[in-house]
């Protein structure tokens, strides 16, 4: 081979560099996804430790669903309605909350210092 790189070799180096960049980007994205999971990492062990209470609560919820389906379905419908209304209002309320929240934090932290 001659000392000059062939177009295929240049293309190969470019693709190798691009793959390395994509691997780095993927690692960064995976680390961002892992962060919330690490915060609740103890949830599985918590549920295992308290499985009797968890199963009892699930049993009560299932019993209510079977025994009183009208009330349960009405409660679910009301909850869905509130959720839908909240989602519709969120874009208009969020800018106000973002302006007021730092002020409230400052006042609260000033009281406790």
Describe this structure in words.
With 113 residues, the protein is mainly α. It has four helices and no strands. Helix 3 packs across helix 4 (69-112). The longest helix has 44 residues, at 69-112.
Write the layout of secondary structure elements.
Layout: H1 7-39, H2 43-49, H3 51-67, H4 69-112
Helix pairs in contact: 3-4
Poorly predicted runs of 5 or more residues? none
Order of helices and strands: HHHH
How far apart the termini lie comes to: 74 Å
Largest sheet: none
Rg, nearest Å: 27 Å
Distinct helical segment count: 4
Overall body shape: extended
Strand content: under 5%
Binned, the helix content reads over 70%
Mean pLDDT: 85
Structural class: mainly alpha
**How many β-strand stretches?**
0
Question: What labels describe this entry?
Answer:
113 residues; mainly alpha; 4 helices; 89% helix; 0% strand; extended
Outline of the structure:
89% of the residues lie in helices and 0% in strands.
């Amino acid at each position: 081979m001659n000392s000059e790189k062939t177009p295929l070799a240049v293309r190969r180096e470019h693709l190798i560099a691009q793959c390395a960049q994509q691997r780095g980007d993927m690692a960064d994205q995976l680390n961002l996804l892992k962060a919330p999971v690490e915060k609740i990492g103890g949830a599985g062990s918590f549920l295992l430790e308290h499985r009797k209470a968890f199963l009892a609560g699930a049993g009560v919820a299932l019993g209510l669903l079977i025994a009183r389906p009208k009330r349960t379905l009405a409660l679910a419908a009301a909850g869905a309605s509130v959720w839908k209304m909240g989602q519709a209002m969120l874009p208009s309320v969020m800018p106000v909350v973002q302006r007021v929240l730092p002020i409230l934090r400052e006042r609260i932290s000033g009281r406790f210092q």
